[in-house]
Design goal:
The protein has 3 helices and 6 strands, in the order E-H-H-E-E-E-E-E-H. It has 114 residues and is of the alpha+beta class. The chain folds into 2 domains: 54 residues, RNA-binding S4 domain (Structural Genomics Hypothetical 15.5 Kd Protein In mrcA-pckA Intergenic Region, Chain A, Roll), CATH 3.10.290; 48 residues, no CATH class.
Length: 114
């Protein structure tokens, strides 16, 4: 990864907004490689630097995976089915590691046969 502004790294990790991250930096609550950083605009590389906020090591946020699925006839839209019918999860179980959707999008279409 390339050098990025600390507030952007902190916000991308999901800790807080960029503006709040700027406040954390100004308050001296952010350290890079053991050195407290208070100067806004300071840069770091999350892949190489150890960035801590309030003493806790910052980790890179997981990347999102978005899927658009044309659900075939006979599959039910659920994670598991007590009746043993095939589910949409059977179709996507090998996508990414530990794929567990927290939000599903279903796009209805008039031309579907299900």
């Amino acid at each position: 990864m390339a050098l990025e502004r600390l507030q952007k790294i902190i916000a991308a990790a999901g800790l807080t907004s960029r503006r709040k991250a700027e406040e954390l930096i100004a308050q001296g609550r952010v350290a890079v490689n053991g050195q407290t950083v208070t100067e806004l605009g300071s840069k770091a590389d999350l892949a190489q630097d150890h960035i801590k906020v309030d003493g806790k090591l910052l980790r890179e946020a997981e990347r999102h995976v978005y899927l658009l699925l044309n659900k075939p006839k006979g599959y039910v839209t659920t994670v598991s089915d007590p009746e043993g019918r095939p589910t949409v999860m059977d179709l996507v179980k090998n996508v990414g590691r530990a794929f567990t959707p927290s939000v599903a999008w279903i796009i209805p279409a008039r031309d579907c046969c299900c």
